[in-house]
Amino acid sequence: MVSTKGRLLLVDDDRHLLESMASWLRDLQYEVDTAAGLHAAIPLVDGRKYDLVLADIRLGDGDGFDLLAHCRQKGADPPVILMSGYATVDTGVEAIRQGAFDLLTKPLIDDELELAIDRALSQQKVLEENQHLKAQLDQRYGIDSVIGSDHRMQKIYDIIHSVADTRATVLITGESGTGKSLIARALHRLSDRRDKSFVEVACGALPENLLESELFGHVAGAFTGAVSDKTGKFLQADRGTIFLDEIGTASPGMQVKLLRVLQEFEFEPVGGSQTHRVNSRVVLATNENLTRAVAEGRFRQDLYYRIHVITVEVPPLRERLSDIPTLATHFLKRICDDTGKKVEGFSDSALAAMQRHNWPGNVRELQNVVERAVLLGKNSEVGVDDLPTEWGALEHVGASSIGSRTLKEALEGPERQIIRDALERYEWNRNVTADILGINRTTLYKKMKRLGLEK
């Protein structure tokens, strides 16, 4: 009978036991192949995919350890359960050491055998799911997810590959929405730390006292509300990667603390005296000009030189317009896969409009535009009518409307209207509005203040 519970290979030179056990396992809805010795089992292992191998240690033409070694040479699967009527503690230890899932003692008890099989198959399922999840992570966050054929993007790929397995600090610069976080994750996925934690901290989202606790942890009683010990992000990222986003917003006091941990990889939790030492890879990002910030006294020069080891400068989307069709198609496919919608692509006029747009929100804005077009569109392809209506307002700001004003001044009116419309549409929820516009929250607050929308 074809089983839905798994395919097993049973190996034993006792033919009576072999057939009776195989019959019992088939009654339990397993598909079972049998082999009476090592030489009969090896071609079966090589020729078919089994979910589990059960083998007696003593075989007429070899032993179960030889079969175990052969299975291990093929890779992590299939798991192997060894059986023996002469098992000792040393035999059990040796079996586990060589990679067996379990060692069962004959005569076998039905419930014990069934439980061992269930445990082995369950563990194998978890391993396969983990491999599938890792493959999904590689697809979403690996280097292949950083899309672009522009020569500057190619240079970025080269840098990432060159430094991935080093511990060198990497500073990623570029405007908001260019994909700095994605590059940081790709760097982690390519490194030998990929199986450890990737911990991201948005430095601009927290005031100094909370940011210090977030990064370094605190002990109970360190401040009001600290009712228990808290593990900081640096400790969570030990042997992994910590990504400090918006590092340019760090206060002078926090910059001093960061300088120490980046130099010595040592720190104490807030309110504590125990020194923790970590082995963390540090990746930082900023959309500010740190050279100017140093010159203006807003960023420590010694910290700047400490983080300015390997620099990756991500170009804005408006400077790599040739990448827009590829990026848009990538986002279209992902959104269709996630939602089940069927949209074949973009009209020529839609792609032309995308390449005329200035993309102040960069790649994040493009992703949001494509997502909205797919979700709200009614046709088999994305057309111009599916693109944001406010684009027209920006593109029709002509020379006559600029007059003696600067371009920045001329654009303030349409920019203010776009931001106000988005705020009203989402009930003045700044977090949602920032995501929809493809800018970070700090940039939105600054624009609202400059345009008189903060109240």
Explain what you see:
- Residues 7-121 form the Response regulatory domain.
- By secondary structure, this protein is an alpha/beta fold.
- It folds into 4 domains: 6-132, Response regulator (Rossmann fold); 165-222 and 230-314, P-loop containing nucleotide triphosphate hydrolases (Rossmann fold, 3-Layer(aba) Sandwich); 319-391, Helicase, Ruva Protein, domain 3 (Orthogonal Bundle), CATH 1.10.8.60; 407-451, Arc Repressor Mutant, subunit A (Orthogonal Bundle).
- 49% of the residues lie in helices and 13% in strands.
- It has 20 helices and 16 strands.
- It has helices at 15-27, 38-47, 64-73, 89-97, 110-141, 151-163, 180-190, 208-216, 233-236, 252-264, 290-295, 301-307, 324-339, 348-356, 362-376, 390-395, 399-402, 407-425, 430-437, 441-450, and strands at 7-11, 31-35, 52-56, 58-59, 62-63, 80-84, 102-105, 170-173, 198-202, 241-245, 266-267, 276-277, 281-286, 310-313, 345-346, 381-382.
- The strands form 5 sheets. It has a 5-stranded parallel β-sheet with strand order 2-1-3-6-7, sandwiched between helices. The protein has a 5-stranded parallel β-sheet with strand order 9-10-13-8-14. The protein has a two-stranded antiparallel ribbon with strand order 4-5.
- Strand 4 (58-59) and strand 5 (62-63) form a beta hairpin.
- Residues 396-404 have low confidence and may be disordered.
